[in-house]
Amino acid sequence: MAxxxxxxxxxxxMMPQLGLGVWQASIEEARNAAVKALNVGYRSIxxxxxxxxxxxxxxxxxxxxVPRDDIFVTxxxxxxxxxxxxQAMETSLKKLQLESVDLYLMHWxxxxxxxxxxAWKAMIELQKQGLTKSIGVCNFQENHLKRLLDETxxxxxxxxxxLHPMLQQRTLHAWNAMHQIQTESWSPLAQGGxxxxxxxxxxxxxxxxxxxxxxxxxxxxxxxxxxxxxxxVTPSRIEENFKVFDFRLEKPEISEIASLDKGNxxxxxxxxxx
Length: 274
Fold this sequence. Notes:
The chain is an alpha/beta fold. 40% of the residues lie in helices and 15% in strands. The chain has helices spanning 27-40, 54-63, 85-96, 116-128, 142-152, 170-178, 190-193, 200-209, 213-223, 235-242, 251-258, and strands spanning 6-8, 14-16, 20-21, 44-46, 72-77, 101-106, 132-138, 158-162, 182-186, 227-228. The strands form 2 sheets. The chain has an 8-stranded parallel sheet with strand order 3-4-5-6-7-8-9-10. Strands 1-2 form a two-stranded antiparallel ribbon. The longest helix is centred in the N-terminal third of the chain and has 14 residues, at 27-40.
């Protein structure tokens, strides 16, 4: 993992800043994508129980020559299992063919069900048992995070949220940073670049740096201090998305991209999904 930027989480563990996402991939697609990604140089793979492709990642981890200690594996606790976190973790580990994962995330708070604090307490125990090195959350708003802190005293290392140039969530990103919670971007390319890749600033920067619009957007995430997990099952795109370490955006260019923020949420509202 030394050949790419690493982020130090507040529990002391290190995480690659760029990883592979496998949302909406079949078991076979996830396996092939992970094998390709590891060959290219990725050292972080993000899956989830609800993706129903953990078996594919497990197969890839068995096939690769890359040592297990060099690969950062993330999976997630699904909403229906918030009161059965230990069993859900055991199921995920069996599918992944692993004894432990590097990061276990709670997928959504589901506030109307009001189980997320109990789920977090269970995840704290899973970490103590050594089944996961780090624990974090996805899609948590400030009030959800504050309640976890107030009721358990344990802060997530990661808050993985929808974040792309059209939905930058700067207030939440700043709140995370203030509490030493690393922000991680899902749908970082706005699900295929919808309304992003055709923006003039993105096109101009792609031309300036000799990069694709996707590479410019990934670089923007990296230069903004975000962990980013672009999803792809296309070998050429997996390779393209990783070729972003030979340039950096200038501060005025980062600010120009910041001006694209329109609050356009593509996924569910975390206050409403239950």
